[in-house]
């Protein structure tokens, strides 16, 4: 259960505001106005603190409770602007478009790719195959994982496929993330970008039905993850 002690608003108000920001393409000032119209006076800076604090905690719960995914993966990066510079959002979905994992990195290189694959495998198990584009760093990252699997005897080797058109489902999935982040006009700090994106990805997973609670709305599922 996520701790809400010390906040000056009801838990339900905080979770509603955080979910709304992560699910819909609005700025903090837009959300401040929306909340005021509903009788809740809260400034945009407070809304930002709520998102940065609670979104990554709820994302952890979402990863633990998401439905099982397929063993055929699609992996690629998209771009997110932080402090006026482009950073790299590593993302992976399965063959059905279900979110596997995501990771924001300041650089696009072998170490980042390897770190992402380690994280994704830890959360989802070893895949049968992974489809990537022609990125040398991603290829090297997967080859590194295969080396680890071979010498530790932890499981089967991963089939690596470099077929761009097979990643179309992931390219389409990127668009939702970009649509939500566009009104944010870039992030001012890397940690707040990573926290916010974790929340956006969680809201997207709920939208795709990866975390089901019988009869619950998307916002109710989000609140359920907070405990």
TrEMBL record:
DNA-binding is among the record's keywords: yes
Domain DDE: 71-210
Keywords in alphabetical order: DNA recombination, DNA-binding, Transposition
Pfam families on file: DDE_Tnp_IS240
InterPro entries linked: DDE_dom, IS_Transposase, RNaseH-like_sf, RNaseH_sf, Transpos_IS6
Claim: Chaperone is one of the keywords in the record: no
Protein task: Involved in the transposition of the insertion sequence.
PANTHER family: BLL1675 PROTEIN (PTHR35528)
Name of the protein described by the UniProt record: IS6 family transposase
């Amino acid at each position: 259960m996520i701790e809400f002690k010390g906040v000056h608003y009801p838990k339900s108000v905080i979770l509603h505001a955080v979910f709304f920001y992560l699910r819909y393409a609005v700025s903090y000032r837009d959300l401040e106005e929306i909340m005021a119209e509903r009788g809740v006076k809260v400034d945009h800076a407070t809304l930002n603190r709520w998102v940065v604090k609670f979104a990554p905690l709820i994302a952890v719960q979402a990863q633990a409770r998401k439905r099982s995914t397929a063993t055929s993966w699609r992996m690629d990066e998209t771009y997110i602007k932080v402090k006026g510079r482009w950073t790299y959002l590593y993302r992976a979905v399965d063959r059905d478009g279900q979110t596997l994992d995501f990771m924001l990195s300041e650089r696009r290189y072998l170490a980042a790719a390897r770190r992402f694959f380690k994280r994704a495998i830890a959360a989802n198990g070893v895949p049968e195959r992974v489809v990537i584009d022609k990125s040398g760093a991603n290829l090297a990252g997967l080859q590194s994982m295969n080396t680890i699997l071979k010498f530790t005897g932890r499981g089967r080797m991963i089939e690596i496929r470099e077929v761009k058109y097979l990643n179309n489902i992931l390219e389409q999935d990127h668009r939702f993330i970009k649509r939500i982040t566009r009104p944010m006009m870039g992030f001012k700090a890397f940690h707040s970008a990573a926290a916010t994106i974790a929340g956006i990805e969680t809201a997207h997973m709920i939208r795709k039905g990866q975390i089901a609670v019988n009869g619950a709305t998307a916002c109710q599922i989000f609140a359920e993850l907070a405990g």
